[in-house]
Amino acid sequence: MLSARLPIGLSGLQGPAREKEKREKERSELRDLVGKNLHVLSQIEGVDLEMYKDIVLPRVLEQVVNCKDELAQYYLMDCIIQVFPDDYHLQTLETLLGACPQLQPTVDIKTVMSQLMERLSNYASLSPEVMPEFLQVEAFTKLSSAIVRVIEAQPDMPLVGAISLHVSLLTFTLRVHPDRLDYVDQVLGACVKKLSGKGKVEESKATKQIVALLSAPLEKYNDVMTALKLTNYPKVLEHLDYATNKVMAGVIIQSIMKNTTCISTADKVEALFELIKGLIKDITGAPSVDELDEEDFKEEQNLVARLVHMLVNEDQEEMFKIITTVRKHFLQGGPRRLSFTVPPLVFSALKLVRALQTQEGEGEEGPVTPKKIFQFLHQTVEALATVPAPELALRLYLQCAEAANDCDIEPVAYEFFTQAFILYEEEIADSKAQVTAIHLIIGTLQRITVFGVENRDTLTHKATGYSAKLLKKQDQCKAVYVCSHLFWVEDEGGVKDGERVLLCLKRAIRIANAAQQMANVTRGNSGPATLFVEILNKYLYFFEKGNPQITSNLIRDLIELIATEMQSENASQDPSVDAFFASTLRYIQFQKQKGGALGEKYDAIQA
Questions:
Q1: pLDDT classification of 155: cutoffs 50, 70, 90
Q2: Which of 27, 146, 284, 316 is the most exposed place for a label (fewest CB within 10 A)?
């Protein structure tokens, strides 16, 4: 009876007092006394579940409700939850929850209910054998209904409080009923109902609670695929502002990467991209492109690029549907994102081409063929023209050309090279970028074996022509002597045109001479003889490979020319060039001493 009267004592302190501090001290002492009495009551041997259910709890709750002091009500509810056993709470859940909507509107009921749900979920985790009791008493349904009633009873409850209640209920559900996705979706649906008509949530505390609500299923299941099954998940996401929507999209992608979750159908990709659309395209509320932080933007788009490699299916037809779906969304992202998102998509498609190539007899028939994928690739890389990103597009065209070569489709490989040359001619103006691009073209062309004589001659002629037109003489020389490899390919059946190799090397020497003369005029010295030593090494390479046009006499003449240049009064001294030339001469001597057929060839070189 003492414990039943004490709440009245607490409520009696509501009236105005002259000394606030004295009143608060008395209230605190009385509160402690009430708590101790409730604790003693819970320890009395005769207070079993039946007595608690029929007598103790109803009387205590009656006093709590009749007490109109908000602090007293909060403290007493907290005491009840903390001092009585978990199984008592479970069996009297309806009675306990029934008191919650009757409390004063200003009572911090969300904390009270959150503590109750936390105790019950801990009880279920530590004692798995009681799980049937949770189902028997319909704990989830009762808690869910109580939250709805509490929110209705407190119309002035802040939005953050209502969402916090749903977060607590979801946490309880994920711990007690992890296999019941319908319960999880029901909680999300209740939150959607509460947010209905409120538009984008701008209050930071409420936003954090929404993020916590959306993150909970990801953390529990470690599988985004589970979240995709929740129909209300994207509806909650819609209420986040632009910045928080992007944060949540990043959390979803990181979950996929961390758990190596593979998204294996086009429908699932569609659903996933709906969740992360804040990163892949501009949505309502997004700032202008100029207002975005450059580093943050790059980090976000690199995250999206990594995601592409998690969208896989071994079935070629479904995989083609996946990359088609991905491209549809990426092209809606605007030109600034394409330089990040197109490359991984291209390589994903190239991987599919090579998977088809390994299946003998299935390449040219069926719903997905290499030619169909190459058409997809051509259209995809072409989209980079809107960025513009000609250097990146050129690299991707060359990758596609190599894939077409592996599939033995000459017209497609030729078309990709054509597009690469068009980009080089019309879009790449920077001299350094031209040097890089022409070396990429030459290197790729050297590896291509599918071309017939006519197509190969056309492309090699283009490559050597552009090499000789580079801005700097030094760059011209290096590109031209590299072109010599286009006319001598060691692979079986590869071209071996010794005369054209020699023409390239002689042309490189002429350009090197011109570079020396130009340096002599402008700087008063001819500069180091680096280019000549590099060309000498090319001569030695083809000499070893058996090119009949590269004779020992030519090599001897070039060695004499280099020696003369290096001893010239106009030559600038460079120890690294001296070491390079000395090393080359030592190599020649080494081959002579080594003997054998190659040694005999080198014996003819007088150095």
A1: confident
A2: 284
Find where tokens 């050129």 sit: 394
Structure tokens at 526: 């001819």
pLDDT for residue 375 is more than 70: yes
Q: Are 30 and 67 in contact (CB under 8 A)?
A: no
Which amino acid is present at 12?
G
pLDDT at 471 over 50: yes
The rounded percent of the chain whose pLDDT value lies above 90 is: 66
Cβ–Cβ under 8 Å, residues 326 and 308: yes
Query: Which residue reads 């009840």 in tokens?
Result: 80
Within 13 Å and on the Cβ side, how many CA atoms surround 530?
14
pLDDT at 365: 64
User: CA 387 from chain center: how many Å?
Assistant: 21
In sequence order, the β-bridge partners of residue 263 are 311
Tell me the backbone φ, ψ of residue 55, rounded to 5 degrees. -120, -60
Give one DSSP letter per residue of 137-187, joined into a string. TTHHHHHHHHHHHHHHH-TT--HHHHHHHHHHHHHHHHHH-TT-HHHHHHH
DSSP 315: S
DSSP character at residue 54: I
Is the pLDDT at 147 greater than 90? The verdict is yes
Cα dist from 213 to 156, 179, 250, whole Å:
22, 17, 15
Name which of 106-110, 373-377, 452-456 the model is least confident about.
Answer: 106-110
Q: Are 439 and 479 in contact (CB under 8 A)?
A: yes
Looking at residue 293, its pLDDT comes to 85
Mean pLDDT of 32-60: 75
Confidence class for position 289, pLDDT limits 50, 70, 90 = low
CA distance 551 to 562: 17
Contacts 24+ apart (CB under 8 A), 171-174: 171/117, 171/118, 171/121, 171/216, 172/117, 172/118, 172/120, 172/121, 172/140, 172/143, 173/140, 174/216, 174/217, 174/220
Burial of 227 (0-12, 13-18, 19+ CB in 10 A): buried
DSSP 264: -
CA-CA distance, 238 to 227, in Å (whole number)?
15
Tokens 């690299």 locate to: 395
Please state the pTM of the whole predicted model.
0.85
Residue 357 Cα distances to 323, 350, 363, angstroms: 18, 10, 6
**What gap in Å lies between CA 394 and CA 410, rounded to an integer?**
18
- Tell whether the model's pLDDT for residue 46 goes beyond 60: no
Q: What is the 8-class DSSP label of residue 385?
A: G
Q: What pLDDT, in 10s, does the model give residues 523-533?
A: 766 567 899 99
In degrees and rounded to multiples of 5, residue 166 shows phi and psi of: -70, -35
CA distance 470 to 434: 7
